[in-house]
Amino acid sequence: MINLDQQQTFHIKQEEAKDGYGRFSIEPLAQGYGQTLGSAIRRVLLSSLPGAAVTQVTISGLKHQFGTVKGVQEDGVDLLLNLKKLRVAYSGDKPVKLELSAKGPGEVTASQIKTPAQVKITNPDLVLAHLATSQTKLDIDMQVETGSGYSPAEDRKTNKVGLIPLDADFSPVKRVNYKVEETRVGRLTNYDKLTMEIWTDGTINSADSLKKAAEIIIGYFGQVVSPSTAAAPVPTQSIAGSQSNSLTIEELGLPTRIANALSKNGYENVSDLLSADKAELAKVRNMGEKSIKVIEAALKEKGISWEG
After folding, report:
1. In this structure, are 284 and 216 located in the same domain?
2. Rounded to 5 degrees, what are φ and ψ at 80?
3. Tens of pLDDT along 31-54?
4. Is 59 in the same domain as 163?
5. Per-residue pLDDT tens over the stretch 132-167
6. Is 218 helix (H, G, I), strand (E, B) or coil?
7. Of 62, 122, 177, 271, which alpha carbon lies 20 to 30 A from 188's?
8. Residue range 2-33, pLDDT digits in tens
C-alpha cells in the first residue's frame, strides 16, 4: 500500500506471473493518474532499465561479417544475427569474455558457451550454428558489456581485423502494454484502474523490472523536489579529449605516403589512430616501424600521447 496523497492510497497486485511475463493491477488511482503512471512507467521500462549484451565477437576463420566459415551452414551474417539473440544476465561494471568451442557434426547451442561464474545465459537452447562434419570446428570469443537502451555497432568502431562489433540491445524488457479503466471506491466511480503487462527476456523478472522502473522515476522527481548541483568536470589532457577527436589525419602534417596509407586503410582521424595497435598498424602496406615513429612525433607536436 503506497500513499498517493493525504487521503488516497492504492494497491499493486500481481495478477499473473510466468516465465518472462507478468500482469499487474494498480488501483484505485485518482482520475487521470492511470494514464500518467502508465505512460511514464512504460517509457522507462522500454528505454532505461540496465541489461547486458554481446558487443563484439571474434570468430575463427571469419575476417568480416560477409565471409563464411568452412563447414558451417550459416554464413557470417547469419552467425552474427544468432549471436545478437543471446540473452545474458550480468550486472558487473567491467566487460567479460565468453568462449565457445564446438566440433561437428550437429547443431551448436548457447548452452555450449563457457561463462564466468557471474554470468548466466537465459536462453541456453538458442541454436547458433550447424556444423557439417566431424572435421568442422567453430571457435568464438565474445565480449559482454552492460548498458541501457540500444547501442549500434558503429559506436564501437575497430580497425582490428577479425574483431566484429555488434548492435547491442541492452534492454531486458521486450514489450509493455497498459490500459486504464474506471473503478469504484464506495459509491464513487471516478477512479482509475491501471493494468500493466510486462514481457522480459528472462534476465530479470517482471516484478523486479516494475520496481526498478519506479525507482528510476523517483530519482528524477527527487531531483525536482530537492535539486542538487553536479560538480563541474575537471579539465584533463587525456588522449580522449576534444582536441584528439577533432583532428583529421591531414591536420597532423604527415608525409604524403603515410597519410595516403592511413586513409586507404580507414584511418580518417586521430581518434582512429589512438584506438589502433602500433604493431598491427606497422604491418599496413607502405607503413613500418619508421612510419610509426613519424606518426608518434606528429602527435607529440599536437600535445597528444599515443599509448597503443
Report:
1. no
2. -70, -40
3. 999 999 999 999 999 999 999 999
4. yes
5. 999 999 999 999 999 998 889 888 877 788 899 999
6. helix
7. 177
8. 444 444 588 999 999 988 999 999 999 999 99
- Asked if residue 306 is part of any domain, the answer here is no
pTM for this model (two decimals): 0.68
One domain, residues 138 and 204: no
Domain with 198, as residue range(s), is: 2-49+172-224
Give CA–CA dist 131/215, Å, rounded. 46
Instruction: Give a yes or no: residue 158 inside a domain.
Output: yes
Asked if residue 232 belongs to a domain, the reply is: no
Number of neighbours of residue 111 by Cβ within 10 angstroms: 11
> Residue 20 CB: number of other CB atoms within 10 A?
20
Please list, residue by residue across 233-270, b when 16 or more beta carbons sit within 10 angstroms of its beta carbon and e when fewer do: eeeeeebeeeebeebebeebebeeebbebbeebebebb
Give the domain CATH number at 145.
2.170.120.12
Residues 43 and 183 occupy one common structural domain: yes
67 plus 165 within the same structural domain: yes
Is residue 117 a part of any domain in this protein? yes
d(CA 307, CA 23): 52
CATH of the domain at 284: 1.10.150.20
Spatial CA neighbour of 88 closest among 56, 58, 124, 57: 124
CA distance 188 to 17: 31
Distance of CA 230 to the CA centre of its chain: 26
| Count of CB atoms situated within 10 Å of the CB of 27 | 19
